[in-house]
Design goal:
Elements lengths: L5 E7 L12 H8 L3 E7 L12 E2 L9 E2 L1 H12 L8 E10 L2 H10 L1 E5 L8 H6 L3 E4 L9 H12 L9 H6 L17 E2 L2 E2 L9 H19 L1 H17 L6
Parallel strand pairs: 1-2, 1-6, 5-6, 5-7
Antiparallel strand pairs: 3-4, 8-9
Helix pairs in contact: 3-5, 7-8
Bound molecules: S-adenosylmethionine.
């Protein structure tokens, strides 16, 4: 088997959650085929006391428990031994950088990543600083652990690896590929519950279809995501300025 093109290491208190849904469909087939590799590390295996504790009470009081820095650091050091120093190390956290397609692409290009899944109230701050972990959030909500965030991130990464998604064109046209949300899709039947498919899609005129899809992608992005639309509009103006079509 060839060396996998992307290598994931996941540190978790629940290794049995992996590969979970990533064992099925596209990601599962790619895992079987060796396009990517997954190593799960049980953080509890690095606990030192007879109770195998991985957490303790927070200094300063307050609810919940905090994951100990010494146990997590040992798990991380053992996992990272021999890995390139610059390879991304991520800790999932609601206060982190929001996961988006740009970050997914950065991770694809990095060739692999080490992902730390928190539990309880989270991890001791010092281990984040000492091991240079990048905090990444799945969104503005609180999960009970980082495992679902890790599964989401891995799914998004794996589908961009060469050979995973059959038609490469479908990646080029999907949401965020051009900084826009995707245009609407239609299939048979041509009329359903009195709703007809837009005429232009039946025309066979590729240029007109392309223009309609671009206009729809722009309309939907503008209506639903002002933030994306502003960025797209700024990038388009910059591009046109470079090509000399618009005066700076
Ligand atoms: C119950 S949460 C801790 C929440 C934390 N006390 C707070 O208020 O931000 C336990 C773990 O779930 C993960 N987690 C929770 N929400 C997340 C999110 N939105 N994105 C990524 N990871 C999340 C983190 O690893 C976190 O350490």
């Amino acid at each position: 088997m060839n060396t996998p093109s992307w290598q994931a290491r996941v540190l978790t208190l629940f290794p049995e959650m992996f590969p979970g849904p990533l064992g099925a469909s596209l990601a599962g087939r790619a895992l079987q085929a060796g396009i990517w590799a997954l190593e799960t590390v049980d953080i509890r295996a690095f606990a030192r006391d007879k109770h195998r504790s991985v957490d303790d009470m927070p200094f300063g009081g307050g609810p919940g428990m905090v994951m100990r820095p010494d146990v997590l650091a040992e798990a991380l050091d053992a996992t990272l031994a021999g890995r390139p120093a610059g390879e991304p190390r991520i800790y999932f956290s609601p206060r982190g950088r929001r996961l988006d397609q740009a970050l997914v692409r950065e991770l694809v290009a990095a060739g692999g990543a080490t992902l730390v899944c928190g539990r309880f109230e989270g991890v001791d701050e010092r281990v984040l600083e000492a091991r240079g972990l990048l905090e990444v959030s799945l969104g503005d909500f609180v999960l009970s652990g980082g495992e679902i965030a890790a599964l989401a991130l891995l799914d998004a990464v794996v589908r961009l690896l060469p050979g995973v998604v059959g038609a490469a064109g479908s990646l080029a046209e999907e949401s965020f590929a051009e900084g826009l949300l995707e245009y609407p899709h239609y299939t048979r039947p041509q009329t359903w519950e009195g709703r007809a498919v837009p005429e232009v899609l039946l025309s066979g005129h590729h240029e007109k279809i392309k223009a309609w899809r671009q206009a729809e992608a722009e309309r939907i992005t503008k209506a639903r995501r002002a933030d994306l639309w502003e960025r797209h509009a700024a990038a388009t103006t910059q591009d046109q300025t470079k090509k000399g079509k618009v005066q700076p």
